[in-house]
Amino acid sequence: MNTFKRLLIAGVLLANSASLVSLSPVLAQIKPDTSSEQPSELQPPPTVTPPVENLQTPVATVSIPNGRVNIILVNQTGTQVIYQVLGEPRQSTLKADTIDTLRQREVPFNLSFYRPDRGPIEVTAEAVKSGELRIIFKRGANLDVDRISLTVQKSGQVFLN
Questions:
Q1: Which residues lie across from 102 on neighbouring strands?
Q2: Rounded distance, CA 90 to CA 16, Å?
Q3: Can you tell me the distance from the alpha carbon of 151 to that of 85, in angstroms, rounded to the nearest whole number?
């Protein structure tokens, strides 16, 4: 057999064996990257929600002598106001032109409220004396002044939302 034919046969055999190798399944192991140093651009920044006192200024500050506060609700809307203390099972109704007092409420304290006709409520909060906060509900002129909740922090800061 001449040299040319031998080289040709050898080339065909190599090509066939190469194609057989490429068709055979390859098992690979993927090892997790155990290095603790990863570029910071690949790690998302932690999500931290700032406390409400960093997002807005308090509308009032009341002193909290024993960790409790009296909340005086004054309805000047001309209609009912429905309110609920967060964590309590039932809503209450504050009739038009009436006053109600929530006595000795532990802080932090959250109160939500709305008008049954869904009209806007303008809210004023003022510290009357130590441990006593007055909340005045008035009929809002537009939705820019509408408020739906009040929070009293342990520090005595009062926030409206």
A1: 71
A2: 81
A3: 10
Which among 144, 102, 138 has a CA at the least distance from the CA of 123? 138
d(CA 133, CA 135): 7
Instruction: Tell me the HSE value of 52 on the side-chain side, using a 13 A CA sphere.
Output: 16
Whether this model's pTM surpasses 0.85: no
> CA-based Rg of the chain, rounded to a whole angstrom?
36
Give the count of beta carbons closer than 10 Å to the beta carbon of residue 2. Answer: 7
Tokens standing for residue 69:
């506060």
Q: How far apart are CA 5 and CA 93, in angstroms?
A: 104
Torsion from C-alpha of 16, 18, 19, 20, nearest 10 degrees = 90
Tens digit of pLDDT for each residue in 71-125? 999 999 999 999 999 999 999 999 999 999 999 999 999 999 999 999 999 999 9
| Segment 64-80, tens digit of pLDDT | 999 999 999 999 999 99
Transcribe 92-104 into DSSP letters: EEE-TT-EEEEEE
CB–CB of 113/100 below 8 Å? no
The HSE-up count of residue 91 (CA atoms within 13 Å, CB side) is 12
User: Of 112, 115, 161, 110, which Cα lies nearest the Cα of 140?
Assistant: 115
The rounded Cα 132 to chain-centroid distance in angstroms is: 29
